[in-house]
Amino acid sequence: MNLPNKLTVSRFILTAAFLVVFFTALRYHETIALVLFCAASLTDYFDGMIARRDKLITNFGILMDPLADKILVCSAFIAFVDRGWIPAWMAVIVVARELAITGLRLVAASKNLVLAAEGFGKHKTISQIVVIIAALVKSSYSEWGAVGRAIFGWELFGSPWVNWFTTLSLWVAVVLTFVSGAIYLWRNRQIYLQDM
User: Fold this and answer.
1) pTM of the predicted protein model
2) Mean per-residue pLDDT for 8-36?
């Protein structure tokens, strides 16, 4: 197994560890969950970069890398619904979009077509990662003492700025998720309309 594929597999393991820690009552569990999520997100960046740079692209990586990304992001959004951090309908949009695009890619693959990622999709992924990190920081920065409060706790409109940033980034992520999914399904509609 090459290094990019090892990083992809590690993302599955880090996702499981993130969820276990997130739902435990350990001291600083949200801070630890933040570190695990950031580590998993970094593996996403490095596995693709290394695979392209060293020409280590494999069928395993083509299939499992996007799947690992979707499981990581969807797991976090669903976990946040359980905590009451985000409304369920927002998580439904995220999960439904990921399932729909995965389904479309499977239909395309059955016709020997490969659907490349688009710019909107990449921006969507970045926005989702940003909001997940922001929500974890919002919940845990008070545990970091004076430094955490100094960086993330200063007030804007009567509330710590990280609260406003998290809310804004959540809306941006949900809108980008919906719009990117709709555009992707529309641009590739001939693939599934042929079978209807």
Assistant:
1) 0.91
2) 95
